[in-house]
Amino acid sequence: MSNTYKSAGVDKEEGYKTVDKIKKAVGETHNSNVLNHLGSFGAFYEIGGYKNPVLVSGTDGVGTKLKVALDSKKYDSIGVDCFAMCANDILCHGAKPLFFLDYLACGKLDSEIAAEIVLGMVAACKDNNCALIGGETAEMPGMYKPGDYDVAGFCVGIVEKDQIIDGSKIKPGNKIIALPSSGFHSNGFSLVRKVFPNFEEEFEGKPLYETLLVPTRLYYKDIHKVIEEVQVAGIAHITGGGLYENIPRIIGDGLCASIDASKIKIPSIMLELEKRGGVAREEMFGTFNMGVGMIVVVDAEHAEKVLHLLDDAYEIGEITEGGEKIKLSI
Question: Fewer Cβ close by (within 10 Å): the C or N end of the chain?
Fold first, then answer.
């Protein structure tokens, strides 16, 4: 019998099935700016209506949260996570997401699983008025075990040059407002899996994996609701490294983000991990978002308006003068 690509472990037909399962749904994310469709070598997106546009891009994956999804055979939220980790980053600069591309790698492709992951991306793109205009599925036996998947994404957004938010306007007296997270989002799962090895155990009346797999919150609508009404000095997406690493990224020299940790509403699952794993509180804040998915920095006079615009937002600190860029009173 002669060798074939399929005998080497790559089933092209399964790839075609994946495309068939997602093609209609992906097309529903397109708008008049998308000039071609799935199947081309490149994706075309026309830009118009801006005076001095700047493209803002971001790329990311979902880390070992994938392991929880694969072991629990729950794949629908992972696509949302992939999109959110990319799109939430570009929101920090005031950008509106235009289009998204994905990359899905595996050992042996299952069109049902692949389609479920991509359809999660489709749902997230629709929620953010963003077009899913392309992607790549790579079946790589020998690199990945059968049943293993990895996923990554790439998002491009746009903002007028004079409306870029980069933290340069942050000054003493500004207030720091927290937007709650939906849980761990997609960070710290190597530690999560070490402390919680059994995803089937019960937590607060349901299997633990249901809590762990709650998708990363999408902040597009919230952030742009605020930007349209209030001048925002800075925005930070709280991902890997927690508050300690992400807030200083927007704080200028000589300024300090002074945060009262007692005001932060920490999710019960994180408190359980801290207790069960014997994890120090400082390590928790240096690894997880601790319930704060994003922060916005605004003038004190605008703080109440932001809190009114966003029902679940709350103030956690202010900008002061100081040598260290963040001071977290734990």
Answer: N
